[in-house]
């Protein structure tokens, strides 16, 4: 039992704190308690500790009465950071579980879960700085008569009763920052901290939503009937009204005084979702994603922890938001791989959402037009209740989807004649057209027409993309850039030509084919600046341009009602991927992109350009739809013994030396075999080269661990992963372990 209040008195040795520190250590470390009063509940509190020759902020995960270390070697923690636990029991348990499941050091996992300022030990107080005029300056302006800015700031403060929030003032007039600092130094202005207010809801009356159709109503009733934990897979084509169902379920939870956590895969989707939440739900809404400053994230996180935020909308890391009054968890676009973190602490926010819902005993709903095979499998196994919205809501109609066989056609910047005609038709009708091409730059290849030389990256097994606007060759895998050579480095001829289309080239071709028609290109190159993506999406939405060009950024849930034609310039890109999930991803992408067409009252048309019009996946998808595709593909996965019919983990290693990854992975495999009990149900496959064997000058290889049953995989990983770091060759490579990898 943890000691309550004050220093525990009485029997035995003083208690020992087990502290998870932000270092890659397997275990929490033992410390003697810091001097001073104890928090009422120490577990979950931050504490400052000495670590080696530096200091760190750790989190108390347990209080013990003995340590394996001799008392003489125990160090004392330096100070408590919190008076109350920052992490409540549930969140700490969830994180502990996740760290164990994903085989990641607890201390670093905890640190990843916290917004930066809290991780660094900043007080867990939601405070906003204000400036207040000193009484002397309030009375008369003598002190500032010679300083116009200071006088201006004084007048401004007087106008709002002598004090105002610092951030507000600086936003109004940046020059006041310096003026104010000078006044502070003179003691004529004081900085005060006031508790932040969660955005109020009193002045908002939620707008009622449309009347639900029969399918929506049924889904809603099914979810509202849940008492405690229940998992739902809400499968509905784009525009079928899934969001309406979330909103009405959420409204019920809010009315009962509960909090709602909503996860979306992309920052880009947050603003449009946010607007709808604010319009339709009462209660304050906070947003949590990596595009925000650390301070803003900490503020939102704490508002959730204090129970002041009723709705929390965020990207994957928001799954680690405290929910003292939990009511509902929603995961939108649950199939999207961005919901999984793919470096450092690798976790699936979707899977953790289901886990948390179970721990918190609340319903969770996973929504998608194209559910992941994992979730479909869970629905078949009755672990999730499968709800379907087969029709588009309101007046919108399903689009017609057709293949355009481009095998023997001339392409202009990637565009075939039938596609060109279709674009013309839709433009003439005054609609928007979306052209989708998942390749930024001008051309993916620069080739010498005389000898066949191709510009490649010297650090990766990849070709360099030609960016014409900057006259540059660029590697999209390592960032290496080079000038475009004047002549072929191989044969000296000056006949270098771009091959294949990129978004820049598409833009150029469209400008020639449809002169005078406004264009908007949305890809990583045009959205680098903070806020640029939001601005461009808003412009697309307003209809500023009739032609929209986009990479996969534009494929996701954006609602663009004026788009009636969607074209995929090159479907084949995804047909033959090395990753066993490539086909699933392509099918999802095609259906998602198609979902951008005709969401308003105009019927939509979708054209897919391909050189493989007979490909079985495309045929099934087009003739029988995503559910039939998924059915067929699940059967293939089962036959191949792949997820969701097996659990995988991937041990990756890379090094500048070609042999090193193999030496390490071989010894890892050998060590693994020695740890395998009889009938352990686990197979070790490899090592094999990674799909891109060389990247950023490093050679990469991987070892796959496969088990029919998740529990066998977990048991094996527990026995195996702890020893990997001390294996022969471990120090010669960079290695990482990925449990339930979403990318091979
Ligand atoms: P999804 O989340 O499945 O893409 P949305 O909930 O965003 O679908 O709905 C798509 C559009 O249809 C939205 O503009 C929404 O307001 C509208 N809509 C949803 N349900 C209904 C309904 N029952 N009646 C009329 N319009 C609806
Ligand atoms: Zn050449
Ligand atoms: Zn490269």
UniProtKB/TrEMBL annotation:
Keyword line: ATP-binding, DNA replication, DNA-binding, Helicase, Hydrolase, Isomerase, Metal-binding, Nucleotide-binding, Primosome, Zinc
Chain positions recorded as Zn(2+) 1 binding sites: 448, 451, 488, 491
What GO terms in the biological process aspect are recorded for it?
DNA recombination; DNA replication initiation; DNA replication, synthesis of primer; double-strand break repair
Q: Which residues bind Zn(2+) 2?
A: 457, 460, 475, 478
The record's InterPro entries line, in alphabetical order, gives: DEAD/DEAH_box_helicase_dom, Helicase_ATP-bd, Helicase_C-like, P-loop_NTPase, PriA, PriA_3primeBD, PriA_3primeBD_sf, PriA_C
The answer to keyword Ion transport applying to this record is no
Top EC category: isomerase
Picking any one GO molecular function of the record gives: ATP binding
The record lists the catalysed reaction(s) as: ATP + H2O = ADP + phosphate + H(+); Couples ATP hydrolysis with the unwinding of duplex DNA by translocating in the 3'-5' direction
- Gene3D superfamilies tied to this protein: P-loop containing nucleotide triphosphate hydrolases (3.40.50.300), PriA, 3(prime) DNA-binding domain (3.40.1440.60)
E.C. number: 5.6.2.4
> Which family does the record assign?
Belongs to the helicase family. PriA subfamily.
Q: How does it assemble?
A: Component of the replication restart primosome.
Protein's name according to its UniProt entry: Replication restart protein PriA
The species this protein was found in: Halorhodospira halophila (strain DSM 244 / SL1)
Q: Gene for this protein?
A: priA
């Amino acid at each position: 039992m943890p000691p309550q209040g004050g220093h525990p008195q009485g029997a035995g040795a003083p208690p020992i704190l087990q502290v998870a520190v932000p270092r890659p250590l397997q275990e929490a470390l033992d410390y003697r308690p810091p001097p001073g009063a104890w928090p009422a509940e120490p577990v979950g509190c931050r504490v400052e500790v000495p670590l080696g020759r530096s200091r760190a902020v750790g989190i108390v995960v347990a209080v013990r009465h003995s340590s394996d270390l001799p008392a003489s070697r125990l160090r004392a923690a330096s100070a408590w950071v919190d008076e109350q636990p920052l992490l409540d029991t549930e969140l700490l348990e969830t994180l502990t579980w996740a760290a164990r499941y994903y085989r990641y050091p607890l201390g670093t996992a905890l640190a990843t879960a916290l917004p930066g300022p809290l991780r660094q030990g900043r007080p867990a107080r939601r405070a906003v700085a204000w400036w207040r005029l000193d009484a002397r300056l309030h009375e008369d302006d003598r002190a500032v008569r010679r300083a116009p800015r200071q006088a201006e700031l004084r007048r401004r403060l007087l106008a709002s009763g002598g004090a105002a929030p610092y951030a507000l003032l600086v936003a109004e007039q940046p020059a006041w920052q310096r003026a104010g600092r000078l006044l502070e130094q003179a003691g004529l202005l004081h900085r005060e901290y006031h508790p932040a207010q969660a955005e109020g809801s009193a002045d908002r009356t939620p707008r009622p939503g449309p009347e639900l159709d029969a399918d929506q109503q049924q889904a809603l009733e099914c979810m509202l009937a849940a008492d405690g934990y229940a998992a739902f897979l809400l499968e509905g084509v784009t525009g079928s009204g899934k969001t309406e169902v979330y909103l009405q379920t959420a409204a019920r939870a809010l009315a009962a005084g509960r909090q709602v956590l909503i996860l979306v895969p992309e920052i880009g989707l947050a603003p449009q979702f946010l607007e709808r939440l604010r319009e339709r739900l009462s209660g304050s809404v906070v947003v949590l994603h990596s595009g925000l400053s650390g301070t803003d994230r900490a503020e939102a996180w704490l508002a959730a922890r204090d129970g002041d935020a009723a709705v929390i909308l965020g990207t994957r890391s928001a799954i680690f938001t405290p929910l003292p009054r939990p009511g509902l968890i929603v995961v939108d676009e649950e199939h999207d791989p961005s919901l999984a973190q793919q470096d450092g602490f690798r976790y699936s926010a979707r899977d953790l959402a289901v886990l948390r819902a179970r721990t918190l005993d609340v319903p969770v709903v996973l929504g998608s037009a194209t559910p992941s095979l994992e979730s479909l499998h869970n629905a078949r196994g009755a672990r999730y209740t499968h709800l379907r919205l087969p029709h588009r809501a309101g007046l919108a109609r399903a689009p017609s989807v057709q293949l355009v066989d481009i095998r023997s056609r001339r392409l202009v910047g990637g565009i075939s004649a039938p596609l060109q005609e279709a674009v013309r038709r839709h433009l003439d009708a005054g609609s928007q057209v979306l052209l989708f091409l998942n390749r930024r730059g001008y051309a993916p290849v620069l080739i010498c027409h005389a000898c066949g030389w191709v510009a490649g990256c010297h650090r990766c097994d990849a070709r360099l993309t030609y960016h014409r606007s900057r006259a540059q060759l660029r590697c999209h895998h390592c960032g290496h850039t080079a000038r475009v050579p004047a002549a072929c480095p191989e044969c000296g001829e000056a006949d270098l030509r771009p091959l294949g289309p990129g978004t820049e080239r598409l833009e150029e071709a469209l400008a020639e084919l449809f002169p005078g028609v406004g264009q908007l290109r949305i890809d990583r190159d045009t959205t680098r600046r903070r806020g640029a993506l939001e601005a461009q999406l808003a412009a697309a939405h307003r209809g500023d341009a009739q032609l929209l060009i986009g990479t996969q950024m534009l494929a996701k849930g954006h609602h663009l009602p004026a788009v009636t034609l969607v074209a995929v310039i090159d479907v084949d890109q995804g047909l033959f991927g090395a990753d066993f999930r490539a086909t699933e991803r392509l099918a999802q992408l095609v259906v998602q992109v198609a979902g951008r067409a005709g969401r308003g009252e105009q019927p939509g048309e979708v054209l897919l350009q391909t050189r493989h019009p007979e490909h079985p996946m495309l045929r099934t998808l087009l003739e029988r739809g995503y559910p039939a595709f998924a059915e067929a593909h699940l059967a293939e996965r089962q036959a191949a013994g792949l997820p969701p019919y097996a659990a995988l983990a991937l041990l990756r290693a890379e090094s500048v030396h070609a042999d090193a990854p193999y030496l390490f992975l071989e010894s890892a495999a050998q060590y693994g075999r020695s740890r395998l009990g009889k009938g352990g149900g686990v197979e070790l496959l490899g090592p094999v080269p990674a799909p891109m064997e060389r990247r950023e000058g490093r050679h990469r290889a991987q070892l796959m661990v496969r088990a029919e049953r998740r529990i066998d995989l977990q048991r094996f990983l527990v026995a195996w992963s702890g020893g990997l770091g001390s294996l022969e060759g471990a120090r010669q490579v960079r290695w990482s372990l990925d449990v339930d990898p979403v990318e091979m």
